[in-house]
Amino acid sequence: MSSSRVETRSQCAHIVRLAALCLLALQLAACVTTSSVPNSPFLTAVVRLNPLARPPESVANANAAVIDTPKAQAAEVQSGTPRPAVATADVETTSAVPSAERRDVYPQVASASRNLATIAAPAAPGIARPGVTDAARPASNGRGILLGEAVGAAVLSHPLMGAQAAKVSGSLADVRGAEGSLKPQLQVYAGSGGSYLGSYVNYPRQFSDVAIPGSSRSDAGFTLRQLIYDFGAAKADIARSKSLVDAERLRLADQAEDIALRTANAYFNLLEQSELVALIDKVVADDNSFAKLVMLNEKQGNGTVADVNRIKSKVIEVEAVRTDVMTALRTAEDEFFRLTKLDPGQVRRSSSSLPRIPSSFEPALAAAKQSNPSLLALSANGSSIEHQLASQKAQQLPRVDLQGDGLVKHYIGNQAASQGVVDSRLMVMVSYKLFDGGIMASQVDRIREDKRANDFRALDEKESIELNLRRLYQSLSSNRIKETSAIQGIATAQKANTLYLEQFKAGKRTVFEVLDSRMVVFTMQKNAVNGKYEQLRAAYGILRNVGTLVETAVRSPAGS
Hints:
alpha+beta, 4-stranded antiparallel sheet, 6 strands
């Protein structure tokens, strides 16, 4: 009996201890935190026993939610509050309307590349400056819109220019961030709350002699770090960031060259289709006059119904050609307006002389290697990768820092837990990573492969520019011959058409021969116009591949 009583008393003691631990768990959960306490397995275990914490998701919780759903829906119906759509209830939506506008492009470009803004802005003083609306704007005088004005307006207002200029500004921020590694870094912190500090005994019984007094605690501290020497890692990282700025600025110049070429092609397409419309209108008018002559001859008995039907069908055919030309003209107007936001109706034919370009393929290719912004951007990117490689290698060496930190722990509570602790230091620290599992070496290999990939891209870009220049010079030569031949053919075809018309009136030529001779005149005129503008496209394409299209277009006599 005595032994059973002892066991009963021992069990009661264990129950009392467990009850005390549960009570302590409630106090700790309410006063401290619901997360794990570092370096204290007992407090961590006690906190996790918090009965007030939200129960984990389970099937029972799901069933409870299903049971409560009809009640919530009934409450919504009574209150008149509509329930949001299920598909978008938990999705944060943003406006689909872009916040940026074209008038924001010019300040962005000017801040990213003052040189580019200085070159392009004078060509369009009333177009490129901020505060101008996006509506179609007339030219500043009655002479119409010239190529230089169109290029200046497109370069300083196109959204892609704003996007690339923003990348330049972002890379400048990266430079400032890299330079911050050379400056002192100071962090301060402070906090106040509850604290428990004590101990318990696990032998001979676990969780016995618990002595964990509670108190209020306030902490304040700082951490200071200043780089002294790192074998050039930080400076190499700064140089890398600056090289990336150069690369982004060169990509901005390349984007400007691309938009300038698109604008020039749209400008020339607009002029070309306008000339073709004038030519085809004359053909339509001449065919209508000739149709009246044929019908008059038919009424006088000098012709047949077949002749009348033939001329009518020819007029319809020419009208169809005119429709195609007008469609091409409208397409060119839309493209021009899309690029420049200028009224395409005010574009006027200017001097058709070719811009100054290198005399042949070889000097053009040599100039492209020196001034093409795409090639230069790849070269700058290669330099940034080399600096990155140098920084990565330097990070494998020791690092010397001036490091200081301090911490003040201020306790207020009972006598057992009322004290102040101060811990501070200021030292010159040398750190060196002995083993990192090969991470640094793999990163060096990755950077080397990035450099090799950049070299291959530069090679591809160089070969593409070489091919483009060859084709453009071939096009320039062939279209020069085409225009010369067409101009010579126009005079001959016009003489033949005039002679055929006179002979038709004398009854020596048929309607078919007169119509064919007239279409030969139009074909020769069309070839001459096409050859002239193809030469202009080829010449400005050469300038784009060389990298001087923007400067040439806005400073040329026709564009200023």
